[in-house]
Design a protein that fits this description.
72% helix, 0% strand, elongated
Length: 86
């Protein structure tokens, strides 16, 4: 297949990549909405509650623990799937 330029050849690939990224972002946004909804429902169980943003650089220890926990959960899920009988 002969194309007029590299740009013409690369444009459809770029379009596919952007559409794929948009799909992933939309899935991420939907997941976040569900989580925020759950948090909103749970907060009604408390008499008083507040949320405060703390930049990661000021909360390195908690950030590391959260990442380690997520990594552990993801790995255990993979192990369960891999060890499941066929």
């Amino acid at each position: 297949m002969v194309v007029a330029s590299a740009l013409v050849a690369e444009a459809p690939v770029l379009q596919d990549a952007l559409e794929s990224a948009e799909t992933q972002v939309n899935s991420f946004v939907i997941a976040l909405k569900d989580i925020f909804h759950d948090i909103g429902m749970l907060r009604s169980s408390f008499t008083s509650i507040s949320f405060k943003f703390i930049p990661r650089v000021f909360n390195v220890a908690a950030d590391g623990l959260a990442k380690a926990a997520l990594f552990s959960v993801l790995n255990s899920s993979i192990e369960i799937v891999n060890s499941a009988p066929i």
